[in-house]
């Protein structure tokens, strides 16, 4: 566990805690528009909590959240701002090397694999990649619901010269948790996703924005698949703290409630189980704040 690398946590609730406005459909993009200094402060708080890798606040900078017109007129500038704020925060800490991961979200909506449009996806990913590239060390395709979204990210960053990581979101309704057979929200198996990752050139294969309860089985499945293929790919996890069923409404229609039972101690226990199953990159997603990251880092390194 001592070699585990620590990611940051979820941006949105930390923005709220520090006083930023947060509402749908713009979600965390609204802070870049109205209070970018708070975005920088959230990055700094995660670094102070022990994060070795922070993620640009570019997740909501897609038409799904900010609309097609705003994306076309303001998208590039907002994406550059997101990259710059993360880079400034990472470089502000003397004596520490903090990496910046460039968030490349699902272009057509979180948890919406049925909306994927292969003929249009590169038009939007190109804008994200071009404007984040000067600021990031790693590309992070995250909260992807189907393998085709991962392949789109691979294609988008192929000429960038920077490493890329791919993170899938898992089906996590009650029946999915009880089945013990991890799968992507598209229904594709984790084993098939791992097989694709092994051939893609990705340096890390992660799971995020799903309940903590589904993560250990996914890590174990991926680890077994990579051993079988003799693939040297790191595995990572950053779960969310959402309560209830996450597919009940579109991800740009409201704010999910977060769980009362998932405090920093409970989350760190989950983190230990992921590390024991084979994860070497661990952080948090929506609802997992700086306090959670501080605790899990101390626990994993103790």
TrEMBL record:
It comes from the Bacteria. One of its GO terms (molecular function) is methyltransferase activity. Zn(2+) binds at residues 209, 285-286. GO terms for biological process: methionine biosynthetic process; methylation. PROSITE patterns: HCY (PS50970). Keywords: Metal-binding, Methyltransferase, Plasmid, Transferase, Zinc. Its cofactor is Zn(2+). Residues 1-300 form the Hcy-binding domain. Binds 1 zinc ion per subunit. InterPro entries: BHMT-like, HCY_dom, HCY_dom_sf. This is Homocysteine S-methyltransferase family protein. It comes from Rhizobium phaseoli. The lineage of its organism: Bacteria, Pseudomonadati, Pseudomonadota, Alphaproteobacteria, Hyphomicrobiales.
């Amino acid at each position: 566990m001592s070699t585990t690398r620590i990611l940051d946590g979820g941006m949105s609730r930390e923005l709220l805690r520090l006083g930023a406005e947060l509402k749908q459909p713009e979600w965390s993009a609204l802070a870049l528009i109205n209070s970018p200094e708070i975005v920088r402060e959230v990055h700094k708080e995660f670094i102070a909590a022990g994060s070795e890798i922070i993620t640009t606040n570019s997740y909501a900078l897609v038409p799904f959240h900010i609309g097609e017109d705003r994306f076309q007129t303001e998208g590039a500038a907002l994406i550059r701002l997101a990259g710059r704020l993360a880079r400034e925060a990472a470089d502000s800490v003397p004596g520490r090397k903090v990496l910046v991961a460039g968030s490349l979200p699902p272009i057509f909506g979180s948890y919406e694999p049925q909306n994927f449009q292969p003929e249009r996806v590169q038009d939007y990913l190109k804008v994200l990649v071009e404007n984040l590239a000067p600021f990031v060390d790693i590309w992070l395709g995250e909260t992807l619901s189907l393998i085709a979204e991962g392949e789109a990210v691979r294609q988008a960053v192929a000429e960038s010269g920077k490493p890329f990581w791919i993170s899938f979101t898992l089906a996590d309704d009650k029946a999915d948790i009880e089945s013990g057979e991890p799968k992507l929200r598209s229904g594709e198996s984790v084993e098939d996703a791992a097989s694709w990752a092994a051939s893609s050139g990705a340096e890390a294969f992660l799971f995020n924005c799903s309940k903590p309860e589904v993560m250990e089985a996914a890590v174990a499945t991926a680890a077994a698949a990579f051993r079988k293929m003799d693939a040297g790919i790191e595995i990572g996890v950053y779960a969310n703290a959402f309560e209830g069923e996450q597919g009940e409404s579109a991800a740009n229609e409201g704010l999910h409630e977060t769980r009362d039972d998932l405090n920093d101690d409970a989350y760190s226990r989950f983190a230990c189980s992921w590390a024991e199953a084979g994860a070497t990159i661990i952080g948090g997603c929506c609802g997992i704040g700086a306090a959670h990251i501080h605790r899990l880092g101390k626990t994993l390194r103790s």
